[in-house]
Amino acid sequence: MSGGGEHDQRPALVFAAGNPSAEQIAAVVAVLSARARAAAAATSGETSRYGWSARSRLVRAPVLRGPGGWRASALPR
């Protein structure tokens, strides 16, 4: 009679050949987790907003008139 415990489940990851070390198993799990997260983000339809596409970048700073105004126009804000 089966109690429905942990032993009834099949392993999610099986190494068919070799004897991988703990570091190698951790590397494989990290890569598979990252790929699964990327795939989930791509299918969820979420779009991230980047600073380059922000509409506030289109707003221009006022032009300073007077001596040295041309120099001040090139300085970062």
Characterization of the model:
It is a single chain. This protein has 77 residues and is mainly α. The chain has helices spanning 22-44, 69-73. The chain is elongated. The termini are far apart. The mean pLDDT is 76.
Radius of gyration, in Å, reads: 28 Å
What does the average pLDDT come to?
76
Shape assignment:
elongated
Q: Please report which band the strand proportion falls in: under 5%, 5-15%, 15-25%, 25-35%, 35-45% or over 45%.
A: under 5%
In whole angstroms, the N-to-C terminal distance is: 73 Å
Task: Tell me the major beta sheet.
Answer: none
Keywords for this entry:
77 residues; mainly alpha; elongated
List the helices and strands and how they pair.
Blueprint: H1 22-44, H2 69-73
Short description:
It is built from two helices and no strands. The protein has 77 residues and is mainly alpha-helical.
